[in-house]
Amino acid sequence: MSATSLKPVKDLRSFEAMAERLGARLYKAAVSLCRNSDEAEDLVQDTLLQAFRKWDQFEGRSDPATWLYTIAARLCQRRHRRKAGEPSTLQSLDELLPPATGPIVDVSAIGDPHRAYSQNEIRNVASAAIAELPPTFRVPLVLVDIAEMSMSEAANILGVKEATVKTRVHRARLKLRQVLASQLPSRSYPGCEHERRVCLDLLRAKQESLDRRVSFSMSNHALCDRCASVFMTMDLGLEVCRLLGGAVEPPPGLLQQIIARCGR
Predict the structure, then answer these.
(1) CB-CB contact of 243 with 123 (8 Å)
(2) Domains in the chain and their CATH numbers?
(3) Has this prediction a pTM greater than 0.85?
């Protein structure tokens, strides 16, 4: 008789109720944490099986969703330990932002139906870009901008300082923005009319507004064209993350099969 079969029936039933209620949310996060759907299914299965084995240890003091995300995030990080030759950090801010002169995203052309990408195309580009991020940056971005957790919640899940999560999310957003910008219409730009320091201060304020999920209060008329372009593509990146958070459903029967395995 397996160890899991010794669980009391009432424990199995309460676990089943929790898994059925939160399984779809877990799968949506897994799709962004992993590189393909097969790997996402494996991650959901491993997460729920591990959660069931530890179900008697869960005292209900935290949100069950947070508990499941904690297991999933740590399993993901163990699965994708940095490979030889893979960068351990993202680029610097200067590398992640457009240069002072040169092409920028053409904000006015984004709404042109003849030039704009479809929602599905943008989502596919963003999904691929997120999958290519190193896990150190991908996991915090998924937790904060796709699962819509707070920085402190993500920090508790990952076992790191809140400031560390914030730094990683900010860099990941800029990398995602950079990839999206490379796929969007551009125009030439003669040069920034603001000092670089001013633009970086505005960028920090923009990131803070995204962290708090509030509107950025600075009028576009007060921004240089380059900052307006950067912020618009950051907003697009966040919009795509929210779409990813609600765009997928688990394959039919997946959660039921996993739950059934728990009861064996």
Answers:
(1) yes
(2) 4-83+248-262 (1.10.1740.10), 93-246 (1.10.10.10)
(3) no
